[in-house]
Design brief:
eight-stranded parallel beta sheet; alpha/beta; about 40% helix; TIM Barrel; globular; about 775 residues
């Protein structure tokens, strides 16, 4: 009995973020294309050799990307919109980066210093959106009616040959044709996915045939849309695609890979395709195994995704080994592979880099390298001499037991408080129509009140001061004085231009989740736990390892300081419980809903303390609420129920006179409007500038009663909108909403912008509000 160990993908970024620095050096014109490509080749070689050394038998290739794997496939297949000036042949690196980041083609993509998705000095970037329900972003391919496809340059083949030259036989990874088309978009009304698929498949077959000729025996084709709700046409497209490809290149074995959720009613279609193997995500969808075992043909290879590719917790190896043994006993080892649930792209690279992490927490974690080691241990435990893995299994057992018993993980007081939550704690004292009258009397705001979303530019001077303080080059007293000076300057400037509800600027904050997580029990932070968000933008998600509580107030002193500097309303700024959850690595030994309630209770304490300190406007940001929706609509109601309850739990402890705001970024609200209304925030601010206020239709159609701050300019672009443009947007908003509902604000925080853009934009915004008031 020998089970094959396989990996589905490895992080691209390098242990020391080598790819980020190589990209940014190239974009800044400080290094050459050859320099960048040499770094990329070195990282690929390191990844392949590492996996080989760790005992992984099936090693992926073409899982590397300079920016995004979906964009890679688009340029490989010639899907380049006309505005980028591509005339056929291999797509240049400059065009590739123009697609990714905006800017000029034929020269280095413009570096605006902020990894912006658009640039006023050249072509815009492709649209960017979340990769399913992960925190990775992909570039959205743009298709046209009659879309032509051509194999511009076979990247999967190139990287297969690159590994082959190093003596490593790989299994190339390619995003599947149906997922590629479903994840793209078209501006053409007559665009038809079925017809487009027919044009696409011959080019896929050409790509696969070249791989087979080069010596590839297997290829991993990812079809993650199989975790979504699919209709009859989608099922037909999947069947047509794989019947075509297997007929055209019959010698090349296909592992069809789905992840992030259950196949559900797509399983029968997937498992009856003429492919050689099928991957099951048994972390997200353990129920798929029994269903697959009942109907899989005897020769179908089942790839069992038993190691969590999206979270960082150590696996219960003994339990997994026992489960896989039963599959092997039923099917035989030749038709079983063990693998991560998905690509390891979504986890940090190596736990060994974490020298300062608490030892007790550290022993419960596994990053990408450690997950490869876990696979190798399982391979040994399921092999001919399982006793040789016993010591490793014992270490796994001990770590699991220690975590369960840990006093750092388990806080009885927090658990008891969650158990005692009542429905009354999730409701404000009075309905909105009563509250708003009291708030208006207390705040005395004009029609079309102006505010901002919270943060102001974090200049190089601010970042340098934070860095000097963290290194000990600036004393705590000196750093505090610097922050107070920046805060007071920003308050004075807001007063001067006439903003109605002020913010303190958040100069003391590093990140909207990290700042709070560092002050909460139950959270831990890494030094090198970087994961790719998009391009060269990497994040270090916090680790929620135990029961969450608030030892002391987190923002009250800064709010009090800021409030003392003005007679205008000062807005307190918090990150909401759902966003704190979604943008973290969340413990896997409790339901996410319970962890979210723990965070909500901690934030509830902060909200009531802010109110007691005299802050009468409190914003609780929830940009991640919409993106946290499960992949299947049948699961939405349960998620929205606990997510909305958590927000209300955090916000509902205040008096009627205290106004609760929330902010949500780029989201479609039509399909979740009842949940948005159920939040019962007094004011919600949203992005509407790019849609020209079209998103407000969801609110007006539903008769949304509370107040709304539709963003009147796009902070993600360096351009400065004029007064007339904002007036036009506000007039459009006033046609959809009662003017008394409307607030005036940018569409997001201003942290990443410069003062040279921020000052004139906000001056224009205040003037636009004045003109609307005068016209009433």
């Amino acid at each position: 009995m020998t089970v094959i160990t396989a990996n589905l993908g490895f992080p691209r970024i390098g242990k020391q973020r080598e790819l980020k620095f190589a990209l940014e050096s190239y974009w800044a014109g400080k290094s050459t294309q050859d320099d960048l490509l040499a770094t990329a080749a070195s990282l690929r070689a390191q990844n392949w050799k590492l996996q080989q050394e760790k005992g992984i038998k099936i090693i992926p290739s073409n899982d590397f990307s300079l920016y995004d794997h979906v964009l890679d496939l688009a340029v490989t297949l010639g899907v380049v919109p006309e505005i980028y000036g591509w005339n056929g042949g291999k797509v240049s690196l400059d065009t590739y980066f123009a697609l990714a980041r905006g800017g000029k083609t034929g020269t280095h993509a413009i570096n605006c210093g902020c990894n912006s998705t658009s640039n006023e000095n050249g072509v815009p970037a492709l649209e960017m959106t979340k990769w399913f329900d992960t925190n990775y972003h992909y570039m959205v391919p743009e298709f046209s009616t009659g879309q032509k496809f051509t194999l511009t340059d076979n990247k999967p083949l190139n990287e297969f040959n690159e590994a082959k030259a190093l003596g490593i036989h790989t299994r190339p990874v390619i995003l599947g044709p149906v997922s590629f088309l479903r994840l793209g978009k078209s501006k053409d009304a007559g665009f038809d996915i079925g017809k487009t698929l027919n044009a696409l498949l011959p080019v896929y077959a050409q790509l696969l045939a070249q791989l087979h000729t080069a010596g590839a025996d297997w290829v991993q084709i990812d079809e993650p849309v199989l975790s979504l709700d699919l209709d009859t046409k989608d099922h037909e497209a999947v069947r047509n695609a794989y019947e075509y490809l297997t007929a055209k290149v019959p010698e090349l074995k296909i592992l069809l890979t789905n992840y992030f959720g259950t196949y559900g009613d797509n399983l029968l279609t997937a498992i009856t395709l003429p492919v050689a193997g099928l991957h099951l995500d048994l972390v997200r969808a353990p129920q798929d195994l029994d269903a697959a075992l009942k109907i899989a043909r005897p020769d179908l290879v089942l790839s069992l995704g038993v190691i969590d590719g999206r979270n960082i917790w150590r696996a219960d190896l003994r339990s997994i080994a026992e489960r896989v043994k039963t599959v092997i006993a039923q099917r035989g080892a030749k038709t079983v592979q063990i693998a991560p649930s998905c690509s390891l792209l979504h986890v940090p690279i190596d736990l060994e880099l974490e020298k300062k992490l608490d030892t007790e927490i550290r022993q419960s974690l596994a990053f990408a390298v450690q997950k490869l080691e876990e696979l190798a241990i399982l391979g040994t435990a399921l092999g001919a001499n399982p006793q040789t893995a016993e010591a490793a299994l014992k270490r796994s057992d001990d770590a699991i037991a220690a975590r369960k018993a840990s006093a750092k993980v388990n806080n009885p007081a927090v658990q008891a408080r969650v158990a005692a939550i009542t429905d009354a704690q999730t409701r404000r004292q009075s309905p909105f129509d009563v509250r708003i009258k009291l708030q208006n009397a207390h705040l005395k705001l004009p029609l079309y009140p102006t505010t901002t979303i919270g943060s102001f530019p974090q200049t190089g001077e601010v970042r340098q001061a934070r860095s000097r303080f963290s290194k000990g080059d600036l004393s705590a007293t000196e750093y505090q004085a610097f922050l107070e000076q920046e805060t007071e300057k920003t308050i004075r400037w807001q007063e001067e231009i006439g903003i109605d509800v002020l913010v303190h600027g958040e100069f003391e904050r590093n990140d909207m989740v990290q700042y709070f997580g560092e002050q909460l029990d139950g959270y831990a932070f890494t030094q090198s736990g970087w994961v790719q968000s998009y391009g060269s933008r990497y994040v270090r998600p916090p680790v929620i390892y135990g029961d969450v509580s608030r030892p002391k107030a987190m923002t009250v002193e800064w709010a009090k300081f800021a409030g003392s500097k003005t007679k205008k309303p000062m807005k307190g700024m918090l990150t909401g419980p759902v966003t704190m959850l979604q943008w973290s690595f969340v413990r896997d030994d409790l339901p996410r809903s319970e962890v979210c309630r723990q965070i909500a209770l901690a934030l509830r304490d902060e909200v009531t303390d802010l109110e007691a300190a005299g802050i009468s406007v409190i914003q609780i940001d929830e940009p991640a609420l919409r993106e946290g929706l499960p992949l299947r609509k049948s699961d939405w109601a349960n998620y929205l129920d606990w997510a909305v309850t958590a927000f209300r739990l955090s916000a509902a402890g205040v008096r009627d006179e205290t106004q609760i705001h929330t902010h949500m970024c780029y989201s479609e609200f039509n399909d979740i409007m009842p949940a948005i209304a159920a939040l019962d925030a007094d004011v919600i601010s949203i992005e509407t500038s790019r849609s020209k206020m079209e998103l407000l239709s969801a609110f007006s159609d539903q008769g949304y009663p509370n107040e709304i701050g539709p963003g009147v300019y796009d902070i993600h672009s360096p351009r400065i909108p004029d007064v007339e443009e904002m007036v036009d947007l506000l007039e459009k908003a006033s046609q959809k909403l009662n003017p008394r509902q409307i607030w005036v604000n940018p569409d997001c925080g201003l942290k990443t912008r410069g003062w040279a853009e921020t000052r004139p934009a906000l001056i224009n915004m205040v003037e636009a509000a004045r003109r609307l008031r005068a016209a009433v």
